[in-house]
Design a protein that fits this description.
This protein is of the alpha+beta class and 418 residues long. The protein folds into 3 domains: 235 residues, Alpha-Beta Complex (3-hydroxy-3-methylglutaryl-coenzyme A Reductase, Chain A, domain 2), CATH 3.90.770; 103 residues, 2-Layer Sandwich (Alpha-Beta Plaits), CATH 3.30.70.420; 45 residues, Helicase, Ruva Protein, domain 3 (Orthogonal Bundle). Helices cover 50% and strands 20% of the residues. It has 17 helices and 10 strands. It is globular. The site of nicotinamide-adenine-dinucleotide has 21 residues, from helix 8. Nicotinamide-adenine-dinucleotide (NAD) binds next to helix 8.
Length: 418
């Protein structure tokens, strides 16, 4: 059984950390070399094939969050993020959630929604005719993917809706497609384009847009965890966290920042595994406003024993095949470290990480404030950069915080004095 609860992981050297990850994930020497190579994982030649007008590549820190137990399975979670404290906060949140068994997460099947905009049409007649031809439309859509058809996946349903706009009524035809273990953007767009000519023929209208919707409401992931009352810091801290949550749930200015904290966790895993982070954030923000008011994406309450209970629901469109997940060597290794075997499992991990992150942020805000932890971590990084050993780091950090002088020069001076 793999154990992600690794004592003092943050104090270990890079080599020790890599050895732990290598053993945990059964990485090959080749994969280890890629992680050690310091070039961010892709060559210029690869970058030049990915985007237009390429002039270079750009790398970001890759770290590992520890302590995660999700649906009874232990995970070391690769996170790519430039912001300090996030990886530590996720690990801390997971550590407290672990006391009561970790995260319970479930995910819908991977259904994407493709939209076809039909103009110059008698909408109600069009809807009736489309429904009559549903089988034919689905067959044509599915002719575009042997892979999905062989897996029993692919286009499953056609639905229609009318929208009323200042430029007149429009018919929107939607394809519901089980895209399996991919994000599914390309197959969704392909299927929409493929069926458009017969949709024009059937309805007598004119098709304009044919495109995936990033609002993935048929790919909802639900995570829940119980945070042990004593681990959280006692009854008062639990109650203050509930007050902090009410602030987020009832004020848009606070809610946006609160949800951004959730994205700190979720997007860092998205980055590490090569997901389309813009799609995830756009969808999450729309979901936060689904009641007509922008609110907290997470919910916080307490159980009868006074433990803190957190839940998070996200519409998540992610893949373990396709996109750059199979092209970027570091993204491939990160997916291997996670040991996820389906897009649904990856979505569960990303949602649990968002919830862990949210717990730590809201707890820090409701107790000592966010800055103290940030400054402590900053001081720790500077002490390490000055060359201090793990025993010396604590002494230097304490002194710098007490003096309120946190700099690399000061860390170097204090190290000389030890
Ligand atoms: P992709 O185009 O690489 O397609 C996935 C491929 O994997 C398909 O050919 C499929 O047949 C194959 N496959 C093999 N095994 C599979 C399995 N088990 N389940 C499902 N498919 C399997 O990848 P994609 O997910 O269609 O595209 C993702 C990329 O598209 C991202 O980079 C995204 O940024 C980009 N994109 C996004 C949008 C948008 O968000 N609006 C629009 C266009 C493109």
């Amino acid at each position: 059984m793999r154990n992600s609860s690794i004592s003092k992981f943050f104090e270990k050297s890079r080599k020790e950390k890599l050895d732990i990850v290598k053993n945990f994930a059964n990485l090959s020497e080749e994969e280890l070399k890629i992680l050690q190579s310091n070039n961010g994982g892709i060559s210029f030649e690869k970058a030049d094939k990915m985007v237009e007008n390429a002039i270079g590549t750009f790398s970001l820190p890759l770290g590992i969050a520890t302590n995660f137990k999700i649906n009874g399975k232990d995970y070391l979670i690769p996170m790519v993020i430039e912001e300090p404290s996030v990886i530590a906060a996720a690990s801390k949140g997971a550590k407290i959630a672990r006391i009561k068994g970790g995260f319970d997460v479930s995910a819908d099947e991977s259904y994407s929604i493709g939209q076809i905009q039909v103009l110059d049409v008698d909408v109600s007649n069009g809807i009736r005719k489309i429904k009559e031809s549903e089988k034919k439309i689905l067959e044509l859509a599915n002719s575009k993917s042997n892979t999905l058809s062989k897996m029993g996946k692919g286009a499953k349903e056609v639905s229609c809706k009318e929208i009323d706009t200042p430029l007149g009524k429009m018919l929107i035809v939607e394809l519901l497609i089980d895209v399996g273990d991919a994000m599914g953007a390309n197959i969704t767009n392909t299927m929409c384009e493929t069926v458009s000519p017969i949709i024009e023929k059937i309805t007598g209208g004119r098709v304009l847009l044919r495109i995936l919707s990033n609002y993935s409401t048929r790919r909802i992931v639900k995570a829940k965890a119980i945070f042990d009352k004593d681990g959280v810091g006692g009854d008062e801290v639990v109650d203050d966290i509930l007050m902090a949550y009410q602030f987020a749930d009832n004020d848009v200015y606070r809610a946006v920042t609160h949800n951004k904290g959730i994205m700190n966790g979720t997007i860092a895993v998205a980055n590490a595994t090569g997901q389309d982070s813009r799609a995830i954030e756009a969808s999450a923000n729309a979901y936060a406003a689904r009641t007509g008011k922008y609110r907290s994406l997470s919910k916080w309450s307490k159980d009868k024993d006074g433990n803190l209970v957190g839940s998070l629901e996200l519409p998540l469109s992610v893949g373990i095949v396709g996109g750059i997940s199979n092209v970027h060597p570091v993204a491939k290794i990160c997916t291997k470290i996670l040991d996820v075997t389906s897009a649904k499992e990856l979505a569960c991990v990303m949602t649990a990480t968002g919830l862990a992150q949210n717990y730590s942020a809201i707890r820090a805000l409701a107790t000592e404030g966010i800055q103290k932890g940030h400054m402590r971590l900053h001081a720790r990084n500077l002490a390490a950069a000055a060359g201090a050993t793990s025993d010396q780091i604590d002494q230097i950090v304490q002194k710098m915080i007490k003096e309120k002088k946190i700099s690399l020069d000061r860390a170097k001076k204090l190290l000389e004095q030890i």
